[in-house]
Amino acid sequence: MLDVTATRSLHSQRFGQSPAVFTAPGRVNIIGEHTDYADGFVMPAAIDFATLAAISPRDDGAVVIRSVNFDEEVTYPVSGLPAKGSHQWRDYPLGILSVLREEGIQIPPFSLTLNGDVPIGAGLSSSASIEVASMVAVLSLTPAEIPMTRVAQLCQRAENHFVGASTGIMDQFIACCGEKDHALLLDCRSLEYRLAPIPPDISLVIANSMVKHSHAGGEYNTRRAEVEEGTALLHSHRPEIKLLRDATPDDLARWGQEMRPEVLKRCRHIITENIRTVAAADALEAGDLKTLGRLMYEAHASYRDDFEASCPEVDILVDLAKKEPGCIGARLTGGGFGGCTINLVENTAASAFSEHLRAGYLDATGIAADIYLCHASAGAHQISTSKGEILFAK
Ligand code: GLA
């Protein structure tokens, strides 16, 4: 857990001002991968890894942003903020400033200290947590009142346009709207959502394969382009298909053969994943964990074989998990090409499960996996005032 008091002290020692502190969580996606930008369904949960953003106003016309994790600080005049990213950590807070300016919000001069414990490059959305924490912190110094669903959309725009990763809305949305002890089923078209309680006797065990992934450029954008190619073909036959959310397995059976083979597979993953995700939310709400687990394993197979976004190390983690007593379901979570698996495990089995998984993975790959026992947590909120009062923890 991040230390709010320590982050406050770091900020006041450096800037001589007592900060207000905001937090935004990372996330784990239980099911629904690469469906968000197809206007489909996702079911993530916010986790108890987060970014803290400590902020105080300045009176010298400067914006100073300090990253504790990278041990770096950058300074810009408010009138000379960059308009483009530079492929560094600073793109995330600078990106949200650029978007706020586009929205007509005047950026006040401020000092911002960012301190996070979301593992970077692990598929747990450290980037969205930095964006959302920074945005709510900066907004607190302005008169603007923006609903959290809109904050999510603006942070997504920063990631798409400033950082240069063509990601969907999932990560920013759950970082804004997650709730303690709940998963969130999001309709990425309407942005309507429902919360499903995670049974108290179930643990969220996240296993980090330690294979790093990155979204800016790379495979994520390639997959997205393949999906768009398939969507265009289906649209040419049935114009109501604007995005893959609108397509059915029957559409694919009729016209899929006209696609390049890999494009057909990418589309099949997304179309079937949408169906699985809605069914998984129903199963969770009905307390039918057996069905939920089966859908997670099926989702992993589809992500691996059709979307081809897994890697051998992650597949080993899922195969090992499947054999463990008390494991309800396991799959690769997040953008893919490395990162973490999400395992739903009965509480009573969670500690033996984690030990066995670590040992089995080390034996098979020579890599020591990090295993995190997480809890579904709240979305972004303020945790301390500038006077140092700790606000009621969500
Ligand atoms: C990343 C993106 C999300 C989503 C997932 C895949 O986390 O940021 O928008 O597309 O990958 O489900």
Can you write the helix and strand succession as a string? Answer: HEEEEHEHHHEEEHHHHHEEHEE
Distance between the termini: 14 Å
Structural class: alpha+beta
Query: Main β-sheet, in a few words?
Result: 8 strands, mixed
Strand content: 15-25%
**Number of separate helices:** 11
Helix fraction?
40-55%
- Ligand set: alpha-D-galactopyranose
Low-confidence stretches: none
Count every beta strand, where a strand is a DSSP E run of 2 or more residues.
Answer: 12
The outline comes out as globular
Q: Averaging pLDDT over every residue, what do you get?
A: 96
Task: Calculate Rg over CA atoms.
Answer: 21 Å
Question: Could you describe the 3D structure shown?
Answer:
- With 394 residues, the chain is α+β, with helices and mostly antiparallel strands.
- The protein contains 11 helices and 12 strands.
- It has helices at 4-15, 91-102, 126-139, 148-163, 170-177, 218-237, 249-255, 261-286, 289-305, 312-322, 347-365, and strands at residues 20-31, 41-57, 62-67, 72-77, 110-116, 182-187, 193-197, 202-208, 327-333, 340-346, 370-374, 381-384.
- Strands 1, 2, 3, 4, 5, 6, 7 and 12 form an 8-stranded mixed beta sheet that branches. Strands 9-10-8-11 form a 4-stranded antiparallel beta sheet.
- A hairpin with a 5-residue loop joins β6 (182-187) and β7 (193-197).
- α2 (91-102) crosses α4 and α10 (312-322) crosses α11.
- The protein is globular and about 65 Å long.
- 49% of the residues are buried.
- Alpha-D-galactopyranose binds at residues 33-34, 36-37, 125, 167-168, 170-171, 334-335.
